[in-house]
Design a protein that fits this description.
By secondary structure, this protein is α/β, with parallel strands linked by helices. It has 8 helices and 7 strands; from the N terminus they run βαβαβαβαβαβαααβ. Bound molecules: nicotinamide-adenine-dinucleotide. The site of nicotinamide-adenine-dinucleotide has 30 residues, from helix 1, strand 2, helix 4, strand 6 and helix 6. It comes from Yinghuangia soli. Keywords: Oxidoreductase.
Length: 266
């Protein structure tokens, strides 16, 4: 018996797919046969990823906008359905540590807190709502995958607003899994191991990077964007047909490791 994962004939939308992990997810879903709408706040980045989708022989659609703006989110999902005729898979990858990075809780300004909550939790809430609203009338079910963080598995020291926002995504995922189950829409959360995308690499000192790497149990290597893309593909596929409301890490055991340093050492 040969098992293949195919998303042929399906349409996916990946948010924040102009770089890093989101880009790898968009390309992986295209490699599995899906047409992919790519959203990003940076126009050139969205168009570049859309070209990569086309290079895989699928149709790509670049959508430029801020996922923290609920009207724009609704518009982008509607544009996807207008263009492709359906939306089957929504991957809500937009997220950020915030430009202030790690800081003791008392040093977080109210604006920095609001930015991090909006850029992680609210963006995901708006996307989930718009995607479900597009999937339900079509009556064909669907899949939503929300990108979360391993920081939700332990206290996110000096990253409290980020940890709380991502933990909110996990709770949202569980709740929507139940609310949307009657419509055959599965909702799961997936979190990467530390992945040295540009912004993450810039945020780490050499010492913190070395300590983090040394604490990765499986092979002592950081994750690549494609590693989370593989988990998202699995969750999007029928191989996960009975999996909903779950939070899954692709981190080589890093967050279970006792030697993993806290973000305070950034
Ligand atoms: N890289 C890691 O180690 C790591 C670890 C845990 C969780 N994550 C999560 O994975 C996801 C992707 O992380 P990454 O490292 O690839 O990020 P990244 O910064 O490399 O890429 C994020 C992309 O999203 C876009 N974006 C950001 N805010 C946006 C908004 N409001 N509207 C539209 N587009 C927006 C950016 O322009 C960028 O292209 C995030 O949710 C992040 O929190 C990453």
């Amino acid at each position: 018996m040969t098992i293949t994962i195919s998303l042929a004939g399906q349409t996916a939308l990946v948010t924040g797919a102009g770089a890093g992990i989101g880009r790898a997810i968009a390309v992986r879903l295209a490699q599995a046969g899906a047409n992919v709408a790519v959203t990003d706040i940076v126009a050139t980045a969205a168009h570049e990823t859309s070209e990569l989708v086309r290079a895989e022989g699928r149709e790509g659609l670049a959508l430029v906008g801020d996922m923290t703006d609920p009207r724009r989110v609704d518009d982008m999902v509607e544009e996807t359905v207008r263009h492709f005729g359906a939306l089957n898979i929504g991957v809500n990858n937009v997220g950020m540590l915030g430009k202030h990075g790690a800081a003791p809780y008392l040093d977080w300004s109210s604006q920095a807190m609001a930015d991090v909550v909006a850029g992680n939790l609210l963006a995901t809430m708006y996307s989930c709502q718009a995607e479900a609203a597009a999937m339900i009338p079509a009556g064909r079910g669907g899949v939503i995958v929300n990108v979360s963080s391993g920081e939700t598995t332990r206290p996110a020291v000096q990253l409290a607003p980020y940890g709380a926002a991502k933990a909110g995504i996990n709770h949202l995922t569980q709740t929507l899994a139940i609310e949307l189950a009657p419509h055959r829409i599965r909702v799961n959360a997936a979190a990467p191991g530390t992945t040295l995308t540009q912004k993450v690499a810039e945020a780490f000192s050499a010492e913190h990077r070395a300590a983090l790497q040394a604490s990765i149990p499986l092979d002592g290597e950081f994750s690549a964007p494609e590693d989370l893309a593989d988990l998202v593909l699995l969750l999007a596929s029928d191989l996960a047909a009975h999996t909903t409301g779950q939070f899954l890490l692709s981190d080589k055991g890093a967050f279970l490791s006792r030697s993993r340093p806290a973000p305070t050492t950034h």
